[in-house]
Amino acid sequence: MSPDRRPEGEHRSAQREGTLLSVVLLFVLVACALSLVTSRHQARRLFVELERAQTDARAFETEYGQLQLEQSTWGMPARVEKIAREQLKMLLPTPARTEVVTMRARAQAPR
In this structure, are residues 24 and 16 in contact, taking their beta carbons and an 8 Å threshold? Predict the structure, then answer.
């Protein structure tokens, strides 16, 4: 028997180990591939979610600007005066009905 030749049992054992190693490596490869697919899917899903959030943010900024403009329009002194005069029948007071009140400085009480 030459040193290069193994007995029949050792040869089969080595062959089984090689096959087992191949199967284990195949499972590891499949697991890595599934992990990659899952992570890419999640990244794409998160990117779509980010895009939607940015679109919503732009819409909210536009709406906020419109509301600020509307608020400034509603609160214009000329508009308030017109509504007071026409709808509430209010008039500006005459100088005879106007009284200016001044406040005197309070004397500081000792502590």
Answer: no
Q: What is the pLDDT of residue 15?
A: 83
Rg of the chain on CA atoms, in Å: 43
Q: How many CB atoms lie within 10 A of CB 67?
A: 10
| CA atoms of 41 and 39, how far apart (whole Å) | 5
The number of C-alpha atoms within 13 Å of 72 and in the hemisphere containing its C-beta is 5
pLDDT computed for residue 89 by the predictor? 94
Highest mean pLDDT among 6-15, 35-44, 91-100: 35-44
Q: Which two tokens stand for residue 42?
A: 């999640």
Sequence-distant (≥ 6) Cβ neighbours of residue 28 within 8 angstroms: none
